[in-house]
Structures are given as C-alpha cells and as structure tokens.
Predict the 3D structure of the following.
Amino acid sequence: MKGIVLAGGLGTRLYPCTLVVNKHLLPIYNKPMIFYPLEVLVKAGCKEILIVSGPSLGDFAKLIGNGDQFGLDSVLYAYQDKPDGISGALKLAKSFVGQEKFVVVLGDNILFDDITPYIKEFEQEPKGSCKLFIKEIDNPTAFGVAEIKDNKITNIIEKPKNPPTNYAVIGLYMYDHHVFDLIKDLKPSKRGELEITDINMSYVNQGTASYALLGSNWLDSGSFKTLFEANKIVAQMMGEDHVNM
C-alpha cells in the first residue's frame, strides 16, 4: 500500500520557532519529527511514499532524499502552494495514488502502534470505504471527536467545547481513490480550509467508515506542550530516564 505524509501548514502554535523552520523538521529527541510518521509507514510495509509540503519541500528532499535510508523503493514530493487544509494537501496526491488504496498520516503525529494489521484489514474492505483511527484521551477539545454506537462512528464533531466522548480522531487515515471525488466537491470552511472532518463525515453518513482504536502512546506534537511531551516519551522509551526533562 502506498503511504503519504502531509507536512505543510504554517505551524503557528509553535511561533516563533517555526517562522524560519518547518515544524516537521524540529527534533523529537534524536530525530526530526517527520521521521516518526515515515517509520510508521515503513514498518507497515509501505514502499512508495509521497511527502506533501510547501516552501520547505527542498529541505525535506535534502533530509530524506530517495528514501534509501528507510529501505523505500521511492520517495516523491508534492508542492502545496497555499496552506488550505488537510484535504487541500491530500488532493495533490491524486496522480500518486492512481487506483490504489493508501494510508495518509499527518507529519506532526507521533504514534507507536504497528498499523500493519489495520492495513491488511482495509485491503479487504470494499471500494469507496475508509478507515479512521481514534485514541481515547483526557481532553479532546482540540481535535475532531467521534461518537460511537454499536461499533460504528455515528458522528465527528470538530473541536467541541463540551466533547460527548473522549475519542479523538487522530491524523491517520486510510482511503482509496474515491476520496478525490469527495475532495473535488468540498467547500472551504469558515477558516478557509478544506476540512478532513467534512470528508470523513461523508464516509460516516454513507455507512462506509470503519475505525480502529489505538492503544499505544499518541501525540499531536504541534504545540510546545505536546512537543515537550513527545521528547520526554521518546527519551524514556530509549532508556534515557536519567535525562532531566
């Protein structure tokens, strides 16, 4: 299955650090942030990767190159000329995907689950479906929040002040080429962005969205707090408990 890493955006939650550096190039302990989602895809067997970014695209090409260091067959790069949302970035992957199913991960999402079993599950699911990933967290108000009934997602509420559940929809998704038909008809939100939640809700409303509940650590490392937490978690996982964090 092909893999896509979305590494665009302005990284405003990390200003001023991201005024001159793309946030996905910032370090998480001993590696650039983007290495973590890349390694999740590689571990799951993805051999062809597309990286989508904006003006920093050349920096990613210099860092990752042709993917030899990850054992990849190829790495391609797509330029996003304006930060118009996750769906806006994803639409640039249409020619890369072709008619295949694929997995996409946001470049600031740090997760440690092996997603190989979920890829195998999704390969058996019918065309026109998607698989979403959720994680139970203490305070999901900064994310899309899933309502679940009878083992199905029934609704996704974007950044609710009073979340009905603690199930955050994280930045890991599986689709096939039908998603590009949905993106084509998508209207910008009040933020002026093409929202991925609107795409995912289309699948929910059609009854074609499945989901997986992640059990390991997960962080959206796009803020100073979560960037610090991600560094601490990775350091501890590597046995660096003596590090004063």
In short: The mean pLDDT is 90. Residues 2-128+170-237 form a domain with the Spore Coat Polysaccharide Biosynthesis Protein SpsA; Chain A fold (CATH 3.90.550.10). Helices lie at 35-43, 57-64, 86-90, 94-97, 116-124, 179-184, 196-206, 224-237. The chain has one domain: 2-128+170-237.
